[in-house]
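Subject: mismatched residue count in predicted assembly?

I count 908 residues in my input, but I want to confirm that the predicted structure covers every chain. Input:
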Amino acid sequence: MQTWKDYQEKNKDKFLNELLELLRIPSVSARSEHKKDMQACAEALKTRLLEAGADKVEIYATAGHPVVYGEKIIDPSKPTVLVYGHYDVQPADPLNLWHSGPFEPVIKDGKIFARGACDDKGQVYMHVKAFETMSKTNTLATNIKFLIEGEEEVGSPNLATFVKENKALLKSDVILISDTALISLDTPSMDVGVRGLSYIEVEVTGPNRDLHSGVYGGAVANPITILAKMIASLHDENNHITIPGFYDDVVEATTAERKLMAEAPFSEEEYKKDLGVNELWGEKGYTTNERTGIRPTLELNGIWGGYTGEGAKTVLPSKAYAKISCRLVPNQGSDKITEILINHLKKIAPPYIQIKAELHHGGEPYMTPIDSKGYKAAAKAIETTFGKQPIPVRGGGSIPICALFEKELGVKIIFMGFGLDSDNLHSPNEKYDLANYYKGIETIPYFHKYFAEQ
Amino acid sequence: MQTWKDYQEKNKDKFLNELLELLRIPSVSARSEHKKDMQACAEALKTRLLEAGADKVEIYATAGHPVVYGEKIIDPSKPTVLVYGHYDVQPADPLNLWHSGPFEPVIKDGKIFARGACDDKGQVYMHVKAFETMSKTNTLATNIKFLIEGEEEVGSPNLATFVKENKALLKSDVILISDTALISLDTPSMDVGVRGLSYIEVEVTGPNRDLHSGVYGGAVANPITILAKMIASLHDENNHITIPGFYDDVVEATTAERKLMAEAPFSEEEYKKDLGVNELWGEKGYTTNERTGIRPTLELNGIWGGYTGEGAKTVLPSKAYAKISCRLVPNQGSDKITEILINHLKKIAPPYIQIKAELHHGGEPYMTPIDSKGYKAAAKAIETTFGKQPIPVRGGGSIPICALFEKELGVKIIFMGFGLDSDNLHSPNEKYDLANYYKGIETIPYFHKYFAEQ
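Triage response: the counts match. Full output below for your records.
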């Protein structure tokens, strides 16, 4: 019988070329003009899952973008692993900062450059190829189900309904997700938590039309100035968020956990150098890893108003806008924080302007225990292929659907990510190292093997 | 001999149609793609000036957009009036707020809607048609020179050189400008001053690339947040500008002037209603008219950074930008204020970010006395056609070249504007009332007559 290693070695180029094909589809969920691309991407995945050995693959329509479901049931009495991932990607702009087309993947210095290379097409596709490896070598030890959605980057607005309506279909013993990072190939790690999210958009209206800034300037509130003042007030001089009630439900990390976090390898100098900043910023009293892991945040994701073109226009604009998102930690509730945030903005809005604020999307924070069967199987798989035990870390990102999965399906979620923080997720020049891609494909079959053995 | 009134009555439609043709040329000086339109607009003016009776018209190339010069010298011993105006217009965006195309003029409710209808094509063209009236009826009492530039809306960067190099050509006894407003046709007024300008652009850079706001948020300074904090700090709780030295050179208006200003008809309720705001905003201790007339201001003309498209993108952007302009009053110097402003921004920039700030354009404030020959001739002309003496007021806008004109050519500038503050200058749906257009054409010949008689 062919070994996993043999099979993967022989199919190395095929594994890569298929991923590149997938990356060529601009499946941007946030933009309505990509509706057809979303369908095309779902169909490509269906084809690949069937080729890899799935018994059955269906594309389910939703109120938004379709969900791809596939399965191979080898024996109903054996444990079932549900692999969750997403085929949608973040918008690619600002396009002018990409060194090559976001949907024209190129390999450079051992890295695949393309939107979605890591987040999450590359990581999803590792599972398809790991499944193929087990399937083609007749070594699949678990039943396997795939749930690959098309709306993760816009907050999974329709997945909850799908999950609630398809509990039997999705019945499983563990949910496995590769949509996070590890510290490095030398220092493997596994996320034990993801942060929640509350993402809103704010519109501030001053005068009912754009005005000449000479004729009216100084006498009518400028919505940009007012919005800036409102934003400026959201963090105090210690970069602590000032919104009353914001921290009420935060479960402080234990001294033991903070001590463990401090032991993970981290060089502030390298971090600053990589980002090109002279000084780091953040909430007083917490380290960088704590700020991105165990603390909630409030970030401005976008701002616009007035004249933003070439040259000068002396306008006092009617409107200014901002996109603001908070990352949440246990036990902050997304709905509650959204309400607190929107109400606070309305409360601090001065009478000179009118304000509208509304939710884009949200998601709950999620923590997974490190003593579950799934966590242990994943840690052992990583130890097998990396030669080292993974360090448990708290991830800064969000996978909005996690809390709902556990609630509706009653199983734990395991985050076995193979990306790197430096993969430029959501940024120009997103990349995924070939070494990480292949390492994932190599490691995942061991997860199934060890999970079945427990 | 035909009277002015007869000639104008007979040519009413022609006067309008020719203006509409001029308004169809998208002569946006700030946008490089309109370079050809600028030339076309200059040539159209040349043709019209010659038709109106000019002896000579030249289009002078500059380092930027061309200058149109025309003249009719009836007798070198007679006084010469130099009419200054501009054929360039502000950018038309945001386009979606226009009810009809900005360069497809329409007449509705007795008003011409188009970019440049009032500022300044409509007002310049009144002078061309007033000149035609005098020329065709053989009643021109002064020599007349036209200087119509194409860069007023971008700060007249090349006009100073042209003026300095062509002092003999531009020799005159008074400069007449229609690029301001009057209170109303019932309450005529004349501007006795225009504010200066200092217009800069600021770029704040945080990390060297756009980052995932989950992975890095909370640990790296967000340039939008920092820029907002910097902007917020520029006005104190009394909406007084906080930049050290900003007010140092301001000549406070006298109690007498403030008393006179307070007597001009003004309804705060109507002003608020027209603008759709519940409360006015501005520097404590000053009235609305004082805030826009005798006080310097600092306004945000534009802001942008991060994701500004449809939906949500969880990005911590690398850069954020703002366009900021100050209106200046006597004796503030544009260069000095620009320097103070840029240095202040650099000083308050925290070490987490890098800042670039640079001048877009500037211009000096200008005041004209009310006892000059030109002012008296204009006031008498207005009294003749309006039946009322004009009220002297301080305008809020800027005509950057005024101070230079006086310095280089040694003559006073007279502002005889026929627009209205509600003409949506620099805004969507700019308009010019037909009644004001024709009133200007009716009034201007009297200026020439009275100026010649003095």
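Chain A has a mean pLDDT of 96. Marking this ticket as 'not a bug'.
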